[in-house]
Specification:
globular, four-stranded antiparallel beta sheet, four-stranded mixed beta sheet, Butyryl-Coa Dehydrogenase, subunit A, domain 1, Butyryl-CoA Dehydrogenase, subunit A, domain 2
Length: 649
């Protein structure tokens, strides 16, 4: 059944229960593990160092091609990009974007047969770190275009015809954007309201999309919309490639933010927009799976720019702390400041280790890196914010002062406060920290749920529970004994990581702690069973411990790689040692908070806050917020606003 030509039924926002929302998310996730995963094994108490050591490396030809492009990009960043101008005017100059197009930067990840540069994930990430250091807004533009925009989903799910039609455009001329979020839909896609109604050999799109990064200047869009189920149509959330200049598309607003002021992010309305069925990516109902699969590697772009931020923070901290003197010596030599510098240096080393390892594993395609990429995004975004905050503290009042103000009074224009503002969004972009905790936790306990899921499901029959209990008994009878002892208890284990500085104790710690982590998870499953998914505080700490263990492993493996290649090996070992010692302190604190915390009390306080019990505590202030609804009306229909879409030519 199709709608009458030129019309479409009025979309209604789906009303879904919590269980239905979880079912939608569960159906979208990749169910099978066809390849090994270092991080998944880590959460199960199995330290598979063989999966990451020796550290994988790019092929010589790929490295040469990548280095040649980085040299050109560095020259462009140094001579053509004025980050201060972008910050002041809140816009990337058109000539800069056109210059990036000519350089081939739009096609870094696109195959050479489509006119792209064909860079590996490793060198794509290094390019993002480089250009993001010149202007985080440009880094975000290039990342949104290639990591989650049209090129990546077409590379994985597109037909040959779609690839031949769109990828050459994306490689050289056309900017793309990814449109999933709506005014009332964030991390709960089951409530997606934008519709795509079949109409012959087209679909008719209606709806409103929010926070469309690149949407203001985009030429091509990846749009997620709900196809109604009907005769001949399975329906469900579906992905489409849409021409941004199509009739009925209006960019209604260019949004402004506390950071990334050059970001071309907007609100996009679709009113009876006709999209050829040939532009549908994959099958109907595959949209969320396409989005999640795209993000498996797409998420690596954010930690890439976090690594770049860490390197810059280290440079400024070093230069400033050596020049600034207080009480007769450089501030770096005061322990209170020195500890911050050590944290920035060690963490930057570890973040780069996590990023390069995850990226190289993505390039080799030997391992399933869905957890590794998610951990890199989670850990990178959190730690980069901490490093930037410490840099502001090291700089003192000058850290809080804007670069323009510093320049105006004759000092070096260091944009430390801008870095802090720009990095803050990474804890929200492409999955907030809270959502990343739940996503990673779901994958981390997948083995448990696959054998015990029916056992803890209240809606399953007694027969189903009995069968699940038998299966679980077999699994745990084999698994639990392996969590008792391992190489981490042998003094000589991992001895090939001892060269002057001894990193082997840290790897033994990771092995022991991974087993402790798995035991803790099993105990929680036994204790809470079906309520486990509501224990978000506990799950978040489990994930954070896993992230630290992954970072420690990556740091040690990278240090050994650099030593073996004769590239600052002694210094790398020192940084890895410092990071691991800092990380182990954080891990022990997290373990302590698994069982000693205020989670239950916090829930009681929250109920009191929501019920108005503590409104007396809010007295004595005025609210400077403006009037208006908490969430803007996103009812479908024609736009009443000026179209601010401005494609760059």
């Amino acid at each position: 059944m199709s709608a009458a030509p030129g019309t479409s039924p009025v979309p209604t926002r789906p009303t879904v229960t919590e269980r239905e929302a979880r079912q939608v998310a569960e159906a979208a996730r990749e169910q099978d593990w066809r390849k090994p995963s270092f991080a998944k094994e880590l959460f199960l108490g199995r330290f598979r160092l063989d999966l990451i050591h020796p550290h994988p490396l790019p092929a010589d030809e790929a490295a040469q091609r990548g280095e040649e492009f980085l040299a050109k990009l560095r020259d462009f960043c140094e001579t053509k990009i004025d980050g201060a101008l972008i910050e002041r005017e809140a816009r990337i100059p058109d000539e800069v974007i056109n210059g990036l197009k000519e350089l081939g930067a739009l096609g870094m990840k696109i195959d050479t047969k489509y006119g792209g540069l064909g860079l590996t994930q490793v060198y794509y990430n290094r390019a993002l770190a480089l250009v993001g250091s010149a202007s985080p807004a440009i880094g975000a533009l290039l990342s949104a275009h290639q990591s989650i925009g049209v090129p990546q989903p077409l590379k994985i799910f597109g037909t040959r015809e779609q690839q031949e039609k769109f990828l050459p455009r994306c490689a050289r001329t056309d900017i793309s954007a990814f449109l999933l979020t709506e005014p009332d839909v964030g991390s709960d896609p089951a409530r997606l309201a934008t519709t795509a109604v079949p109409d012959g050999d087209h679909y008719v799109l209606d709806g409103v999309k929010l926070w469309t990064t690149n949407g203001v200047v985009a030429d091509l869009l990846v749009v997620m919309a709900r196809v109604p189920k009907s005769e001949g149509h399975r329906g469900g959330i579906t992905a489409f490639v849409v021409e941004a200049g199509s009739e009925g598309i209006t960019v209604e607003n260019r949004n402004a933010f506390m950071g990334l002021r050059g970001l071309e992010n907007g609100v996009t309305r679709f009113h009876r927009v006709r999209v050829p069925a040939a532009h549908r990516i994959g099958e109907e109902g595959q949209g969320l799976k396409i989005a999640l699969t795209t993000l498996n590697t797409g998420r690596l772009s954010l930690p890439a720019m976090c690594v770049g931020a860490g390197k810059w923070c280290l440079k400024i901290a070093r230069e400033w702390s050596a020049a600034r003197e207080q009480w007769g010596k450089p501030v770096a030599l005061h322990e209170a400041v020195g500890s911050k510098i050590s944290f920035i240096a060690a963490t930057t080393f570890a973040l780069e280790a996590v990023l390069d390892l995850s990226s190289q594993m993505a390039d080799e395609d030997r391992n399933d890196i869905r957890i590794e990429a998610a951990l890199a995004k989670l850990y990178g975004s959190e730690m980069a914010c901490l490093m930037a905050d410490e840099l502001v503290q090291i700089r003192g009042g000058r850290g809080f002062e804007t670069a323009d103000s510093l320049r105006a009074r004759g000092e070096r224009a260091v944009p430390a406060e801008q870095m802090l503002r720009d990095l803050r969004i990474n804890r929200i972009f492409e999955g907030s920290t809270e959502i990343m905790h739940l996503l990673i936790a779901r994958e981390a306990v997948d083995a448990h749920l696959s054998v015990a899921g029916d056992l803890i499901d209240p809606e399953k029959s007694l027969g189903d529970k009995a069968r699940a209990g038998a299966n679980a008994g077999v699994f745990y009878a084999k698994w639990l004994p392996r969590l008792v002892a391992g190489p981490g208890q042998l003094p000589g284990a991992y001895g090939d990581f001892k060269h002057g500085i001894d990193l082997s104790p840290h790897l033994r710690y990771v092995e022991r702690t991974s087993r402790k982590l798995a035991r803790s998870t099993f105990y929680a499953m036994s204790r809470w069973q079906g309520k486990m998914e509501t224990k978000q505080g506990f799950l978040g700490r489990i994930v954070d411990i896993g992230a630290e263990l992954f970072a420690m492993s990556a740091a040690c493996v990278r240090a050994e790689l650099l030593r073996a290649r004769g590239e600052h090996g002694r210094e790398a070992y020192q940084l890895a040692d410092a990071f691991c010692r800092q990380s182990r302190i954080r891990v022990e604190e997290l373990f302590g908070r698994l069982w000693t915390n205020t989670d239950d009390l916090d829930r009681k306080v929250v109920k009191g806050v929501l019920s108005g019990t503590y409104t007396w505590l809010e007295q004595g202030v005025v609210d400077p917020s403006g009037d208006g609804p908490w969430i803007a009306d996103a009812a479908p229909g024609p736009s009443t606003k000026e179209n601010v879409h401005r494609p760059i030519r």
